[in-house]
Amino acid sequence: IGVTCLEAEGETAGELRGLEIPVSVVPCPGRLPLFRAHSGLRTHFARRRLDIVHAHNGVWAKSALAARAAGVPAILHTAHGFDRSEPWFADGLRWWAGRHTDLVVAVSEPLHRHLVKKALIPAERVVTVLNGIDTFRYSPGPPSGALRGRLGISPERLLIGCVARLDPVKNHTLLIDAMALVAQRLPEASLALVGDGPLRAEIEDQVRRLGLWDRVHFAG
Question: Which run of H or of E encompasses 216?
Answer without folding.
Answer: strand 216-218
